[in-house]
Every structure is written in C-alpha cells, then in structure tokens.
Design brief:
Strands 2-3-4 form a three-stranded antiparallel beta sheet. Strands 1-5 form a two-stranded antiparallel ribbon. It is globular, with a radius of gyration of 13 Å. Strand 3 and strand 4 form a beta hairpin. Helix 2 crosses helix 3. With 97 residues, the chain is α+β, with helices and mostly antiparallel strands. It has one domain: Arc Repressor Mutant, subunit A.
C-alpha cells in the first residue's frame, strides 16, 4: 500500500492539462495520451475533475458535492481527498502553491 499525500481542506489544485472524456455506460473514461494512462470515473469523479479549477478548495468542492449528491461530510472529505491524491500521483493535477 502506498502512502498517498494528504491535503488540508484549504488546498487548491490545477489540472496539468485538459483531457477528453468518453462516456461508456454510466462511467467516463479519461485517456491521457502522453503517458498511456486510462482512468474510469463515475459521475462524482467527473464532477470533482470539473471543479478542480485552481480556485476551489477541497472544502468548497465537498460543499458542492454534498449539495449535489447524497453524501455526508466526512465521507465526502475522505473520498475526495483520496481521489485528488490519486490524480496528483498520476500527474493529472498539481497542488497550487
């Protein structure tokens, strides 16, 4: 098991580059042609991706997700942080310094 970075609720992120999505059933595939990596994201994952705009904090992203999906605050915070950490590891997003 890898130790993923943890980020404070005030952390913001920016996309390294814009990637195209292809819908396959209820999921969306994100293909990164630069490294040959393919991600499958559900509707919540796509929404997180769309909210990563260099201005939205993890806390504000979770606020938005809680208003749009049936998820409690702690679950949202933990799962959003884990997803963003995976995106950082994959080189899709970077923390804004």
């Amino acid at each position: 098991m890898t130790n993923r970075p943890t980020f404070p609720a005030s952390a913001t992120f920016r996309k390294v580059r814009q990637l195209d999505f292809t819908q396959v059933g209820i999921d969306h595939l994100v293909i990164d042609p630069e490294n040959g990596f393919c991600w499958a994201l559900n509707a919540v994952g796509v929404r997180v991706w769309n909210l990563l705009d260099s201005r939205s904090t993890l806390a504000s992203i979770c606020d938005r997700l809680q208003s749009e999906f049936a998820v409690d605050e702690e679950t949202c915070r933990l799962q959003t942080s884990a997803l963003v950490a995976q995106m950082v590891e994959a080189g899709l997003v970077r923390p804004v310094e």
